[in-house]
């Protein structure tokens, strides 16, 4: 593994986890169990579990099957995932708008420290 790949690994793991949480949210919004989604999408229940935990990076074929089970377009799955991230960023911006510049600066410094601890820099 190259240094660049090693540096990108934590971000990829976190992205896989966020995507897994998104899939879980889509499944629950449709009132489906993991087993029901697996059956509808012609994937194994273990595949659904691993995907939702973020320990499985699905192929395009698996994503298409997943979307068939969720009864949604593949583009809609990614659009709603992206929208969720933008919504979180907007909410954070709204929260920061209500505090003093001094508190904002302290929060930015805190985020910088946390990112360094996680190795995001």
UniProtKB/TrEMBL annotation:
The record's GO CC annotations read: cytosol
Q: Does the keyword Lipoprotein apply?
A: no
Domain annotation HTH cro/C1-type: ranges: 23-77
* UniProt GO MF annotations: DNA binding; DNA-binding transcription factor activity
Q: Which Pfam families match?
A: HTH_31
Q: Which InterPro entries does this chain map to?
A: Cro/C1-type_HTH, Lambda_DNA-bd_dom_sf, TransReg_Diox_bact_type
Superkingdom of this protein's organism? Bacteria
> In its keyword annotation, does this UniProt entry include ATP-binding?
no
Keyword annotations: DNA-binding
PANTHER family per UniProt: HTH-TYPE TRANSCRIPTIONAL REGULATOR, METHYLPHOSPHONATE SYNTHASE
Annotated protein name in UniProt: Anaerobic benzoate catabolism transcriptional regulator
């Amino acid at each position: 593994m190259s240094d660049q790949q090693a540096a990108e690994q934590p971000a990829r793991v976190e992205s896989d986890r966020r995507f897994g949480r998104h899939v879980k949210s889509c499944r629950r919004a449709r009132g489906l169990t993991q087993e029901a989604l697996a059956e509808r999408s012609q994937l194994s229940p273990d595949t659904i579990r691993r995907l939702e935990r973020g320990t499985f990076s699905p192929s395009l074929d698996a994503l298409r099957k997943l979307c068939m089970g969720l009864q949604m377009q593949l583009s809609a799955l990614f659009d709603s995932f992206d929208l969720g991230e933008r919504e979180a960023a907007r909410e954070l911006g709204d929260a920061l708008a209500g505090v003093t510049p001094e508190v904002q600066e302290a929060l930015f410094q805190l985020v910088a420290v946390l990112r360094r601890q996680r190795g995001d820099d």
